[in-house]
């Protein structure tokens, strides 16, 4: 499982939001930018997309989409496969981690973060402070 280190400020923002959406939770839990969360959501709708295809859909530069995909892969939210082209060469196709698996990763990450916070609470005052 990829290492995820949620940022406390993002959790604070999430808790203050009356009705956070899936994209809000995704950005908070996985510490990704909004454009990376949008890339994930588009990729979930368009499995086996290339960088060029996603760049067109997202109306973003290919290099930015490529960076977003790298981040998503690091976080365990996307995978990449190489497809050989008939005329030679290859192209990479990306697929989002299925939403049920992404949800499970989110739950696991939150559980780990909550356990960390509980440890800090339990340690409070042990050193006489």
Automatic annotation (TrEMBL):
Residues 29-91 form the Transcription regulator TrmB N-terminal domain. Transmembrane segments: none annotated. Pfam families: TrmB. This is Predicted transcriptional regulator. It comes from Halorientalis regularis.
């Amino acid at each position: 499982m990829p290492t995820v280190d949620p940022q406390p400020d993002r959790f604070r923002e999430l808790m203050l939001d009356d009705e956070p959406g899936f994209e809000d939770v995704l950005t908070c839990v996985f510490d990704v930018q909004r454009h990376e969360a949008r890339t994930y959501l588009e990729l979930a709708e368009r499995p086996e997309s290339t960088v060029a295809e996603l760049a067109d859909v997202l109306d973003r530069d290919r290099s930015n989409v490529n960076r977003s995909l790298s981040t998503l892969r690091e976080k365990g939210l996307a995978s990449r496969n190489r497809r050989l082209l008939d005329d030679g060469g290859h192209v990479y196709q990306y697929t989002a981690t299925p939403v049920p698996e992404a949800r499970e990763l989110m739950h696991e990450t939150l559980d780990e973060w909550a356990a960390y916070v509980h440890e800090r609470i339990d340690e409070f005052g042990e050193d006489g402070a």
